[in-house]
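Check this:
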Amino acid sequence: MMASSYNAKEEDGQLSGAAGSGGVGAGKSKKPDNTAFKQQRLPAWQPILTAGTVLPAFFVIGLIFIPIGIGLFVTSNNIKEFEIDYTGIDPASECYNCSQTLTWNSTKPCICKVPFTLEQSFESDVFMYYGLSNFYQNHRRYVKSRDDSQLNGDTSSLTSPSKECEPYRTSDNKPIAPCGAIANSLFNDTLTLYYINPNGTESLVPLIKKGIAWWTDKNVKFRNPGGSNFNLTAVFQGTSKPVNWQKPVYELDTDPENNGFINEDFIVWMRTAALPTFRKLYRLIEKKNNMIPTLQRGNYTLEITYNYPVRRFDGRKRMILSTISWMGGKNPFLGIAYITVGSVCFFLGVVLLIIHQKYGNRNNSAEIPN
């Protein structure tokens, strides 16, 4: 039996010649061309997993991830945060009467005051948030219920909003501005913070309402129709306010730079949350003196103009005071995740090293009986 070398091109040529000599009835060969791509002979690289490569990788990942996780966790724990629920579910709560009687159509404001105590001072800038629970801003129809052209200042969309805004597109045969379910459900509680002095008097804590929205939202996505025309009453003439609003959009603020569609409370609300429990930035408390804490430890009073009903959907409302760090707000999850992954990798490295030391040098060249 003689050995022979196989040549695909020669074989293809012989087959083609044989087919040609066979006449018209001979079929064409369906064999793929003898190329590196069609014959799967392209250069390839496949890692060879050995103890010398796998074990160092596990130990390196563990030694890198664990310190990073510890740093993230410590940084998150150093962020000071205080949260208070003012929904008024408990009959003993200061806001219980407001929560039971308030509806969307209420015209008389309900005011309640919630006292609380800060056990430690807040040294740096403080961010005040409002939080809602059991509110599904991520619902598909809710997210689509808006007109971005109208919010960008398009005059034609102002008088003829998008059909996506239904059923909050028109009211009293007038186009709604801003239209849609997101705008219609705007959070409208008013939160005021007072510090209780040692002599019992109240001092108003200054809250900054500008600078809470994203720059791109404030300067690109949201614009008032009419450009720099500050006479918003004339601009929005012929439109109707959202059904659940107590006042039209051109009366959201007395500051013309923070009124209408460019009102920052409105802009913050229009950026929908991904989860049913969320918080949104409400106000800023800036540090003015390096020698004095931004918020001193002691007694405070939170005064709430209770306008936003949540009892219908079993929701909860809360106010959060928080500082931030280079990694943002308080969130220990990232640090815990890094520590967990690093610890698992380091543990697996130790286990595999023990197995390798115990069984890796075994003599596998034993004779196989005939």
Observations:
- Strands lie at 81-85, 110-118, 126-133, 170-171, 174-175, 190-196, 202-204, 278-285, 298-306, 316-322.
